[in-house]
Amino acid sequence: MPILPKDIHAFMAQRVLGQRDVLRLISVAVYKHVSGIRAGNILLVGNSGTGKTTIMKTIHRFYHEHDEMAPFRVMAVLNANILAGEEGDIRTARLFTALEAAVKKQLGENVDRETMRQGLQNATVCLDEVDKISARISGKPNPIGIALQQALLTILEGETIMVPVTVTENGQEVATHVPVDTGRMLFVCGGAFEELYDQVYSLIINRKDDRRLKETTELQRTLEGEVRVTAVTRFKLVDYMRLSDMFAYGMLPQFLSRFTSMAILDDLAKEDLVQILIAAQDSPLRHCRDFFASMGIELRVTQEALEMIAEHALRNTRIGARALREIFSRIMADAEFDPFGQKRLQKTEQGHSLTLDRAMVLERLNR
Known about the structure:
Strand order of the largest sheet: 2-3-8-1-11
Distance between the termini: 57 Å
Number of strands: 14
Radius of gyration: 24 Å
Order of helices and strands: HHEHEHHEEEHEEEHEEHHHEHHEHHEEH
Number of helices: 15
CATH topology of the largest domain: Rossmann fold
CATH superfamily of the largest domain: P-loop containing nucleotide triphosphate hydrolases
Oligomer: single chain
Structural class: alpha/beta
Mean pLDDT: 89
Shape: globular
Largest sheet: 5 strands, parallel
């Protein structure tokens, strides 16, 4: 049975926490791409730490963990700013240079002309930090951003471009050009668009249009453990943003029209952050456990401690999951420096154990 969009979604949802609706869009786009259907490009909008880079890496992992995806494993992840030279000249050719290198890394250096063409045409391109090529920066025109957006129009539109490459013919390296239909490629672009959040929020609270913030009630627990019912006005860009806000931010209408879907990533919830601590491959908790295991110490963590760390990270919504690393490092710094001097260290049959509990979190975060 062929892989369907829901199968791609299931694979990604195991590795990208939260963002269910965004992953649905990504899964359909990937399915169309590998099925030879015009996929449509996707623009990801989300705060730092909400999962944009993780999504891009997971697409790459999906291609590599399924044998039938071998023709689509060529992928490049680039910062949009590198497409501009130091003198401000536009160098979109760097995108194809990166893809050519990806083809040779995947298939070997001796690639013939047709194999190179197919590799480029089946590629997935992830452009990060596209918010940095806005037509305006700090309220002032950004000529490089305007030029870059315009230069990318043809590539994103889906036209046949003659791409300069070096291939192998009759055992010799040959410089040539291959026709690449960019409409067969999948483009996933992303950016934090940090000023966009402030821009939209300011419009709402200053009543510059018909949008109004909605108030809800939530249960919140203080660091001391007291639970309170609190009226909260929580701003989520996904609930309020309009396409006109992107134009005002500095993204050209022609550029945005090249994207079939604009996906706004939610700030992660407490449950998502707890799950990241427990299960994410680069979780600070996982690394810390490995650190203590090297000394024969088992690091144990209570559920209450995990939730307290997640709640503290939620206060840093602009950096999302990345706040976990700083907070966890602050909590564990003393224990990592002097593991055997910790009062919570206990001797076990296997060696020693150290328990990170609510009291320890409270003690370290209140310093």
